[in-house]
Structure formats: C-alpha cells, structure tokens
C-alpha cells in the first residue's frame, strides 16, 4: 500500500517512520528540493497545485493525506476525483481559515475567545470597539508558530497593527488570560472508530510551542473529548485531528484546530502505546485504531533554531532524540526530544536536565 503525502516536512517524515513497520510506502509532493521527508519517500518536486504533478501522484499511490492545512483546495479536489483523500476537504476548508474555524466551533457549542471579522482598518476599529483591548489581530489564513499575529495594547496605533499583518483579511480576538494551554489529539477512522489521547499541557515561547506534557486523568479530559467528538462527527472526519484550547477555570476555549498530526502529539511516539503518526495511518487505511493509553509520564521538548549537544542529550536516561535532518535556522523546529519516566517528579527532574543541556 502506498500513501501520498502533500508536504514533505518533519510531519511527513514521522508519518513515514511510523508507516514502514506496517509495510507502507510513501510518496511526498513537495516543492522544496531538500525536504526532510524526501530521503524516506518517493519525492515529486513540484508545486502543490501543479496539475501534472498531482496526476502523477494519483497514479503512484492508493490514498492521499497531508501534513499541513494550507494545501490548495484545488489540489484536494483534483486528487479526490481519482482516490480517497483524508482528512476530508471540508475539514481542510474549515481549519485553514480562522474565521470559519471559530464560527464552526461556536455553532457546535464549543466555546472560543470572543472574536470579530476584520476586512479593513474601519473593521479593525469596529472590532476594537466591540471587544476592547488588549486583543490579538490574526490573519485568517497561513499563520503558524505565532506568525501573522499582532498583539494590540490599549493606546497602540491601530493603523500600525493593520500594516504589520499585511492588510489582509483577519480576525480580531480577545486576549485570554488563561490558566493553561492544553490540546487534545483525537483520531477517527474511515468506519467511524474514534480514540482520544490524554490532554497535553502546552507551553509556548514567542508564539512557538516549546514543551508538551501528557496529563494524567485531568479533570478537563471529558469536556475536551466531548468537543473533539462533536467536531469529528460533524466533519465526518478521518485521521488525526488536534484541537488547541485555552483552559480558564472549568472552561475550555477552543483556540484552533489542525487537520493533521500535531506538534503537541509528538510525545506519543515513545509516550503512548500507539503514536499519533501510526494512528493517523491506521485511521486513513481503515485499520483498527491502536491504544492511546500513555506509557508512564511523558513530555516533549522542541529543539528550535540550533542543533543541540547530541551527546549530552543522549547521555540522559529515558530521553529519546528526534532530529529532522533540517538545517539550523533561528526559530526553526529542527527536532524534538521525548522523555518518559515512571513518576511526575522524575519527569520534572529529567526536564530540568534537558533544559540545562539546551541552554
Ligand atoms: N486570544 C489569545 N489569548 C491569549 N493568548 C493567545 C491568544 N491567541 C494566541 N495566543 C498565544 O499565541 C500562541 C499561538 O497562537 P495560535 O492562534 O495558536 O496560532 P499559531 O499556533 O497558528 O501560530 C497560542 O498558543 C497562545 O500562546
Ligand atoms: Mg496554535
């Protein structure tokens, strides 16, 4: 069985790594010549919306998935004419646009921060009058790792914020004074089997995820699963879906969702019976889903910018290194480490060992 992946970055690479033991082969469609999944897969080097390249991919593979949500809708449409593409096009259309996404959350009874649509400077002024400040202006599409966002404080020039995001369609969102950020990784197969991983608690720095820790028996787990189930069922979803939340007291405010495997689920590689990558493939192939139960107390630390001291990291017990084969560059995710320990205390101690190495 051959799987096509739109995008050839680290998520495609880890999908391939999870798929080989299941006897799967992979072809990635990715314009970058040095894509980090390319050494592990066939590589069609072309734009995502190149009709000839899409035709070639459709001939080579049995089904198609993707590793990012900004895939052109036309690509999914063309591929969908000849073979199954999962997650479904409606999930992609929703998740790529923050306004659609937040509107759907609310329609399904899932709370979000208050938000307003912004088309122009006048709309921004109106949004500010409605929501107050501080607030965050976010581009509707193409934002990631905090890019395409502008925090607006009381007294700030609104025109400058509008310029800073590039004067493109946006949403303005109330700033949430959250207790924690958490995310759920959910998965649904073609025949409708569903599974949910334990919530991860996420710590961001400069808008980029740094640390995800698997939570055990968290009191918010049932609500997060309920919200994720509503979304999976509404979309007739297939594959892994990640939803990020702001936790405020008993409430979970949905921030965004990703119709793909997600950075806050990397801990599952060594920290759960079945990784998110394997379960995504199982779901897409309509195989029975694997157990999402955690193994011990697990966390994931992103490696951002510089290559770490590999020897020092591997000298730490119970630490697993994942380098993506990407050239170091400021603010670039070039790898991660996962760690699994028998207790929360041991996990905390190991995380501070890791911090010391990474400083
Ligand atoms: N409305 C908000 N209130 C408080 N913090 C926010 C808000 N929106 C975003 N953030 C912070 O910025 C991070 C990145 O924003 P997010 O909307 O998830 O965009 P992306 O992950 O696509 O860059 C969030 O994880 C959170 O830490
Ligand atoms: Mg996010």
From TrEMBL:
Gene Ontology molecular function, alphabetical: 5-(carboxyamino)imidazole ribonucleotide synthase activity; ATP binding; metal ion binding; phosphoribosylaminoimidazole carboxylase activity
ATP-grasp domain span: 102-285
Enzyme Commission no: 6.3.4.18
Pathway of action: Purine metabolism; IMP biosynthesis via de novo pathway; 5-amino-1-(5-phospho-D-ribosyl)imidazole-4-carboxylate from 5-amino-1-(5-phospho-D-ribosyl)imidazole (N5-CAIR route): step 1/2
Keywords for the protein's UniProt record, in alphabetical order: ATP-binding, Ligase, Nucleotide-binding, Purine biosynthesis
Gene Ontology biological process: 'de novo' IMP biosynthetic process
Broad enzyme group: ligase
One Pfam family per UniProt: PurK_C
Catalytic activity: 5-amino-1-(5-phospho-beta-D-ribosyl)imidazole + hydrogencarbonate + ATP = 5-carboxyamino-1-(5-phospho-D-ribosyl)imidazole + ADP + phosphate + 2 H(+)
Keyword Transcription regulation annotated: no
Binding site for ATP: 98, 138, 143-149, 173-176, 181, 204, 255-256
NCBIfam families: PRK06019.1-2, PRK06019.1-5, purK
HAMAP family reported in the protein's UniProt record: PurK (MF_01928)
Subunit structure: Homodimer.
Family under the similarity heading: Belongs to the PurK/PurT family.
Role, per record: Catalyzes the ATP-dependent conversion of 5-aminoimidazole ribonucleotide (AIR) and HCO(3)(-) to N5-carboxyaminoimidazole ribonucleotide (N5-CAIR). Catalyzes the ATP-dependent conversion of 5-aminoimidazole ribonucleotide (AIR) and HCO(3)- to N5-carboxyaminoimidazole ribonucleotide (N5-CAIR).
Protein name: N5-carboxyaminoimidazole ribonucleotide synthase
Native organism: Thiolapillus brandeum
